[in-house]
């Protein structure tokens, strides 16, 4: 008998997580380097006895360090179980209009999933032929909110802050969510917009730039009014979303920001080198301000190259039948040695 009340939804499909120790894993945009020495020391010295207690409700230790680092007030920050948690809370908290929420047709795939899951009307706004966000498409349009990843994923393209501000200024009656998961690798943060606009909510993660994807910590930054609303939603279903270990290690990561500035600059340099090497092979490579590149292979289909690289224990991301992305691969940036190996393996195909 068919049961009533069951949800039917097409879930987000994450990148594969193979466990081969000899592989080059560059398919999920993880950081190429290990966590900072301060993080590892905090883990080694963590007092496990405290785990019998619940974690802090407000995570003030972490929020204080973030506020100091970002130049904002503590009451402008919320932390959660990865930026996915923060983004989901933002969808629930801020996007409750009958009008459609706008986000690009090629962007982080979870946006559409959350809109479906939370029954939020939405419209996917096409990127340009060059995979750019078209600013005018988000101006003078009736909507229930706007969500933009900047730099965008999976394109890697950064939208100039002046154009982001134009979108924010034209939509002050709704919340504009700016997903800055990759901002540490290029581009200019939207943080200065918080001083003038109350409708800006910025999300970030420790998974990419802090090499803590396995820890699951993210945060949001916005006006005290927005933070008050999203905190009320968070505390309505999962107030203890950041555990004691996660808060201690994330706090240590913020304290060790100079380490991350150095390694992330190195990743960006490797990205630019790798992009140039791919172009020398005839590949099309979109300009990236992230720790990955989106590339269209030359002389071989994207799916065929994906399968070939996997046979060599090199894991990249192929999105399959995704319209304009069907001819592209997304390749995360590993260490310089790893990326040199990838270029060598790809080059061997054309010898």
UniProtKB/TrEMBL annotation:
The modification N6-(pyridoxal phosphate)lysine is found at residue 208. It is an enzyme of class 2 (transferase). It catalyses: L-histidinol phosphate + 2-oxoglutarate = 3-(imidazol-4-yl)-2-oxopropyl phosphate + L-glutamate. Keywords: Amino-acid biosynthesis, Aminotransferase, Histidine biosynthesis, Pyridoxal phosphate, Transferase. Its EC number is 2.6.1.9. InterPro entries: Aminotransferase_I/II_large, HisP_aminotrans, HistidinolP_aminotransfase, PyrdxlP-dep_Trfase, PyrdxlP-dep_Trfase_major, PyrdxlP-dep_Trfase_small. PANTHER family: HISTIDINOL-PHOSPHATE AMINOTRANSFERASE, HISTIDINOL-PHOSPHATE AMINOTRANSFERASE 2. This is Histidinol-phosphate aminotransferase.
């Amino acid at each position: 008998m068919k049961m009533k009340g069951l949800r039917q939804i097409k879930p987000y499909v994450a990148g594969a997580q193979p466990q081969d120790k000899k592989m080059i894993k560059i398919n999920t945009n993880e950081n190429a380097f290990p966590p900072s020495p301060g993080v590892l020391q905090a883990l080694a010295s963590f007092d496990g006895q405290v785990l019998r207690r619940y974690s802090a409700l407000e995570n003030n230790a972490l929020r204080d360090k973030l506020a100091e680092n970002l130049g904002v007030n503590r009451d402008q920050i919320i932390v959660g179980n990865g930026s996915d948690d923060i983004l989901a809370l933002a969808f629930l908290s801020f996007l409750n209009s009958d009008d459609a929420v706008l986000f690009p047709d090629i962007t982080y795939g979870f946006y559409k999933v959350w809109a479906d899951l939370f029954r939020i009307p939405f419209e996917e706004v096409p990127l340009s032929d060059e995979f750019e966000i078209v600013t005018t498409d988000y101006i003078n349009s009736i909507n229930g909110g706007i969500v933009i990843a900047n730099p965008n994923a999976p394109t890697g393209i950064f939208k100039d802050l002046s154009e982001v501000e134009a979108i924010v200024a034209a939509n002050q009656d709704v919340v504009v969510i700016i997903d800055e998961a990759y901002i540490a690798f290029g581009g200019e943060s939207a943080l200065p917009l918080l001083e003038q606009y109350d409708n800006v909510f910025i999300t970030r993660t420790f998974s990419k730039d802090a090499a803590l994807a396995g820890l699951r910590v993210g945060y949001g930054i916005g006006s005290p009014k927005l933070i008050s609303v999203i905190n009320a939603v968070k505390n309505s279903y999962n107030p203890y979303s950041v555990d004691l270990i996660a808060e201690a290690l994330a706090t240590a990561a913020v304290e060790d920001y100079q380490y991350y500035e150095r390694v992330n600059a190195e990743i960006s340099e490797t990205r630019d080198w790798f992009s140039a090497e791919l172009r020398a092979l005839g590949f099309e490579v979109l300009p990236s301000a992230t720790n990955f590149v989106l590339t269209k292979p030359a002389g071989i289909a994207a799916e065929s190259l994906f399968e070939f690289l996997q046979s060599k224990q090199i894991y990249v991301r192929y999105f399959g039948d995704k319209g304009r992305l069907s001819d592209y691969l997304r390749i995360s940036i590993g260490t310089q040695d790893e990326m040199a190996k990838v270029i060598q393996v790809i080059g061997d195909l054309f010898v």
